[in-house]
C-alpha cells in the first residue's frame, strides 16, 4: 500500500500523496454492535462497504429501528414548527441532563407531556374559534325587532346564522324573490374571520336574521340557507331566556379567554424549555438513524450472534479503531471482544487527503476537476501558490488588492461567529474560500507593486524615477519625451512610463513575454510531476516513452523561445522573435542576420527542430509494442493445471488466464495516438492559452485607468462640490462592481482554467473516488 514510516497515531499532513489505505474487516458481537458503530462514528475514519446490496431497505435487519427514528424525527419537526410559530429559536446544544439513547428520549415524560399539552392548546384554540362563531351579538342588542298593533297580533318566526360575505347580496335577493318580499332580513358584518365548519378555513362572513310568517316561508328560507352554505344557529324566542343565554355565553367567553391566556403562557414556557434541549434531541435522533443505516450495511453471521463489517480506513487509524472497539465492548458489558483484521485486495482504495481549514479550499478546487487516483501526485500542493499567483498576474493592482485583503480579513476575524451561522449561497462560497482570497489579495498587492499601479495611479515608492523631461522647462512629458538620468528603478515598473506614448507598447511586450515564461514553466512542472508519478508507481515505460519525449518536444520549441526572451532582455537586442520562431520551421537553413542573438544560434535551432521531430514517433510507437510484448510474456508464464485435473476446473483456469486481463493492441495503439496528437497540438495551444494572463492584465489596467481619468479626474475638474461627490460615488460603485467583483470573478475563472486544462492534463488522471468516512461530524442539522 505504499506505507511510510510515521510516528504517533495521527501523522502530519501530507498533501503530495494521499494517505495509505487498507481494507479492514470487523466482526462485532450483536450485543455491542450499536455502541461499536457509535464509537466508530466518533472516530470518523472508516468508510463502510454495503454488504447487503441485493436487499431492499425494507428487507434489512434494522428497518424497524429506522422507522422508529423517522417517527421521532417527525415529532421533533412538530416541536420545531410550534417554536417557529411562537417566534422562538432552538439554542445551541448544551444539556445539564443529557439524553443518552433514543429509548431514553422516547420514554421521557416531559416529551409526552409537552406533546399532549401542545395538542390540548390547539384543541382549545379551535373550540374557542367555534364558540366565537356561535356567539353573534349585533342581533341580540335589538330584542324588539318590530312593533305590532295590539289588535292585529301576528306571530313571527326568525332564523339566525352566518353566510359567506361574498354571497350575502345574492342571498338577500333570492330570499326576497322566493317569498315575494314577505320577509324581513337584517345583516351585519363580522369583524374577524371565522372558521368555516365545513372547510375548516377562516373566511369572512355576515351574521343575518330573517323574520317570517308561516311554515311555508320557513321551509323556503331553510332550503335557501342550505343552498348558500349558510350556517344556522338556534336562538330562543323567549326574551328572558335570551337575556339568560347572553349572560351565560359572556361568562363562558370570559372563562375561555382566561384559560387560553393561561394556556398560551404555559405553552410558551414549555416551548422555551424544549428549545433549550431541541438541538440535543435532534442530533440524537439523526445520530441513531445514521447508526442503524450503517448497521444495515453489515452482514449477519449464520449464527445471528455477530455482524461482519468491511470498509476502508487509513493505515494510521488502525489503533484508534481498535481502541474504539475495545471501549465499546467494555461499555456494553459484552463477553466477546470485536475482531479487527486487515484484508488483502487488489481493489482500488479511495483517496484521502488530510486537510485543514487553510488547505481545504485549494483541495476542493482540484477535486472539482476530478478526484486524484490513489496516491498519485496531488496538484493541490502547487495550487496553493500557483493559483493565487496566476490570478494576481491578471489582477495586479495593489490598491484593489488591499480592498480584497480588507474584505477577507473581515471573514477571517469573524470566522468562529460566521461558521455557526446560516449564510446565503454566495456568502457561503465566499466564506469557504476566504483563505484562497487572502492569498489572492496578497499576491495582487505584490504584482501591483511590480506593475506600480494603485487604482491605475503610479507612485515613487522605492526610489525616484530614473527618467526626467528632455527639456527642464517642458510641462508635457508625454509628447516631448523622456531621457534616462538616474539609476534604474529598483523594483517594478518605473512610474515615468505611466501616461507616455510608449506605455502601451512597452507593457504589452513585457506582459506578453512574461505570460509565455510563466506558462512554459508551469507546463514543465506538470511534465516533471508525471515523472514522479511514473517513478512512484514503478512504471518505466511512462518514464522513457512519455516523460522524456514530452520534455524534449516542449523545451525544443517553447523552452527555446523562453531562453530567447531572457537573452533579449539581458542584451537589449532588437531581434524579432516572431521572425525567429516562424522561420525556424519554414526556413531552418537560412541565415538569421540581425535576428541572431548568440553565436551558433542557427545550429542550435536545427538540432532542436530535429529533436522535436524525433520526439513525436518516440511518444507514439514504442509504448504500444512494449505493452504487447509484456502482456505476451506474462501470458506465457501463467500456470498450467496438473495432469488429470477435472475438465471443468481446467476450463475455469483457462478462462481466468485468458479473460481476466484482456489486451487489445488496436485500442492501446489508438489511445496512444490520441494522447500523442493531443500533447503535440496542446503544446502550441496551451502556450497560446497562457497569453490570457497578458490580455486580462491589460484589460484590468485599462479599465482602472478609464474609471480614474474619465470619472474621478473629470468630476474634479469642474470645481463643484456636488459634481465631485457624484463623481466619487460613481467611481466607488464602478470600482467595486466592475473591478472588485466582475474582474475578480473573471480572473478567478481564467486561473481555474489554466490549472485544470494547461497544467493538470500533463500528469493528473483524476479518476479516483473520494474517501467518505462514517462520521457524526458531518451530520446535517437541517431538515432532510
From TrEMBL:
Q: Name one GO molecular function term.
A: ATPase binding
Q: Which Pfam families match?
A: V_ATPase_I
Q: How does it sit in the membrane?
A: Multi-pass membrane protein
Quote a single Gene Ontology cellular component term: vacuolar proton-transporting V-type ATPase, V0 domain
Keywords carried by this UniProt record = Hydrogen ion transport, Ion transport, Membrane, Transmembrane, Transmembrane helix, Transport
The compartments listed are: Membrane
Where does the record place a coiled coil? none
Q: An example of a Gene Ontology BP annotation on this entry?
A: vacuolar acidification
Bilayer-crossing residues are 389-413, 434-451, 514-532, 544-567, 603-621, 721-742
Keyword Transport included in the entry's annotation: yes
Q: Indicate the family of this protein.
A: Belongs to the V-ATPase 116 kDa subunit family.
Function according to Swiss-Prot or TrEMBL: Essential component of the vacuolar proton pump (V-ATPase), a multimeric enzyme that catalyzes the translocation of protons across the membranes. Required for assembly and activity of the V-ATPase.
Protein name as annotated: V-type proton ATPase subunit a
Q: Source species, please?
A: Dorcoceras hygrometricum
